[in-house]
Amino acid sequence: MEIYDKLKELLVEELDCNIEDVNLEANLFDDLDADSLSLMQVVVALEGEYDIMMTDEEIPKIQTVADALNILKEKVK
Average of pLDDT values for 51-76? Predict the structure, then answer.
């Protein structure tokens, strides 16, 4: 499964949002109703799924789906 597709699936599961609302431009907080706790749940799910670690510097930079995807693509080789 492509990283973007898995990311979308995890966002729908963790944020209880509609798959139609998840696109690269979607803001996790404004468009998908995430809060700081749900963002951490997404991060933990991604770390577990891909066996990666996101740093304390990277997590606050995740504002959009594209931000999350870019970080994942850097870490998943």
Answer: 96
